[in-house]
Specification:
Elements lengths: L13 H29 L1 E4 L4 E6 L2 E6 L2 E4 L5 E6 L5 E5 L1 E5 L8 E5 L1 H4 E3 L5 E12 L2 H7 L17 H20 L3 H5 L3 H19 L3 E13 L4 H70 L1 H19 L22 H8 L1
Helix pairs in contact: 4-6, 7-8
Length: about 350
Amino acid sequence: MAKVIILPDPDDPGLQGRIARFLMNYILWIVLVVFAFFVVVRNIYTIPADSKGIILRFGVISGIAEPGLHVKVPYADEIYVVPTERKQSLEFGYRFNRAGGAGSNRISTVPVPVEKLMLTRDNKLIEVEWVVHFHINKPEDYVFNLPDTSSVEYISNLTAVSSQREKILRDLCMSTMRRIFAASMFDEGLTSGKQKIQEVGFSSLQSIFDELKIGIQIDEVLLQETNVSDSIREEYNSVTTAEEQVKNMIYQAEAHANKVVPEAEGRAAVLINEGEAYKFKRISEAEGEAARLNLLQEAYKLNPDLTRLNMWADGMTDVWAKLKVVFVEGLGEAGGTLKVLPLPPEAIYQDSK
């Protein structure tokens, strides 16, 4: 059987040749497609649900990107992502510490003593732990009116906290709160004045933020805890003890006064009533006597003899009531003079027996 030998076609370059020819003919388009792919992928960004993106095109705000997937113009757009719907907090006097790492649920607080101390109007030191809750309501003002040295390019540092912005906000809050405590008394900061301090702090900070136009809306200013500073704790306890003793003494004095004063007022009222009654009696008697004398004078003018007789009879009434009649026997018909000693009635009665 004869063997058939197939010779290669000189015009057929083969598989490798066909691939090389294809690449040579379309390499420019391939490069362009790959470049376009990488450009598109590199300029795709996502805005989280609690944020908004500020689009800067050649340094000028061209729009605000809503949450979702977006594509920016290469080398022309710059995106700043601002968490407008996220509730943020600034703690003063303490910081939260998540023990065991980011995935742990054990959260503790670390004190910051330098932020705690406040000087009150009566020159006393008080330790205050407080917090400011806020959110960003105007992202464009927040980005451009609140300086920041660290530039965030679209998504990369979305969750990072700007140290300079945080420092500016903390300085504003601390200076405002220190000014408020400097106008408040020590006892107000510890007890009754805490609500008022919170309200004044809220309104003052919001006014400052609005004036600076930094796009922040304060939700709440809350005083977590207020205590006496360790440097004056012993003196404060001594003063508090003395004040309590004074209060107890005042309470005891008031209780004694509440008991004694009504009694004295009652006795005074009795004496006043008795005096008024005696006064009324004497006045009535005097008026009656004056009326009697007036009538007697009128009667005397009409009949002096009869009037004198009546006056003598009235006067002798008391005398006759005190007279004692003594009967003596044996003087006879001739009569005689009998001398009777002015003895008391008891002696006369005894002799007669």
